[in-house]
């Protein structure tokens, strides 16, 4: 099944190594357009939003395809919720709201 624009994804990049969580805007041979955050900030982001504290917003990224190591759909399973589901459970709103 093809990953489509509007889906929550996790993107792993190299040179330098980065992991991003966000909403896919588009994907083509040149690269990926994404609105997201660094995955290392995810827990702090959820806590800040849930507490009504200042937080960094999601940023718009264009990631050239040569940097993309892997892109996966943010999917949960019976044992573990997806990042989007975890975010909504912790904050009461979907990540796309931010």
Description:
By secondary structure, this protein is α+β, with helices and mostly antiparallel strands. The chain has one domain: SH3 type barrels. Helix content is 18%, strand content 37%. It contains 2 helices and 5 strands. The protein has a 5-stranded antiparallel sheet, with no helix packed on it. The chain is globular and about 40 Å long.
Describe this protein with a few key phrases:
98 residues; alpha+beta; SH3 type barrels; 5 strands
Furnish the topology, listing elements before pairings.
Layout: E1 8-13, E2 18-27, E3 31-38, H1 42-50, E4 59-64, E5 68-73, H2 83-91
Antiparallel strand pairs: 1-2, 1-5, 2-3, 3-4
Outline type = globular
Uncertain runs are none
Return the domain count.
Answer: 1
CATH class: Mainly Beta
End-to-end gap: 27 Å
Q: Which band does the percent of strand residues land in?
A: 35-45%
- In spatial order, strands of the major sheet run 4-3-2-1-5
Concise account of the structure shown:
With 98 residues, this protein is of the alpha+beta class. It has helices at residues 42-50, 83-91, and strands at residues 8-13, 18-27, 31-38, 59-64, 68-73.
